[in-house]
Amino acid sequence: MYQFFVILVPILVANVATFSMSLFDMMMTGNYSATHLAGVAVGSSLWVPIQMGVGGILLSVTPIVAHLLGKRNADQVSSYVVQTIYVGVALCLFIYMLGVFFLDPLLDLMDLEKAVRYVTKYYLISLAAGFIPYFTYCGLRGFIDALGKTNVTMLIILLALPINITLNYLLIYGKFGFRELGGIGAGGATALTYWITTLPAILIIHKLNPFASYMIFKSFQRIYFEKWQEILRLGVPVGLTIFLEISIFSAWGAEL
Questions:
Q1: In a domain, 13, yes or no
Q2: Largest alpha-carbon pair distance within the chain?
Q3: Spatial distance between the Cα atoms of 152 and 146, rounded to a whole number of angstroms
Q4: E strand or H helix at 79, and its extent?
């Protein structure tokens, strides 16, 4: 039971902290402008289901790595982790393509005020600059968690929160010479936070044991679509379930 809570509590804290970024985006934007708050709230209601749904797909690497370690096939761990990162990048490019074709029509269907629509659109566009590092981090997090080191991912995400709050302060309100961007700045701040906090995860995995012993970044690996299929076969049902569950609450919140 003790070991269960040792693993569970950091995962719970990390998930709450991940959601908190969008919460701080809205709270700090609310102090700037009601219009910008509305735009960020709508943008978050569109992003969070995608964020958690795709994250759920990529966390399929956790049971895969655990299974490999149980079978004493540790030599295959590196390949599966890298292939998960490739899947994350591919999903990110797919989301970008959907955004190019469907973001404007979707916002038109929502019948938003012109100013709110503008903030929503450019909040999401600025936030999109952080999609690739975020999904890369999701794959790395799955690997770290599979080794039972959930406290590491908790510490990384807890580090992200003050970084995100600081960047929000600078970019939303235009402090210390930065341009005042309002809600759009909140999207940029979160994107920068994703980049900044993914780098420590990469360094930890590359430099520190037990992660370094798997040599995840030792050499370039080509794409193996067979492993993509395994990752997606496990991850898509989980990710789709999370996406649908969160979408219900996000749609309800947007209506309020």
A1: no
A2: 58
A3: 12
A4: helix 77-109
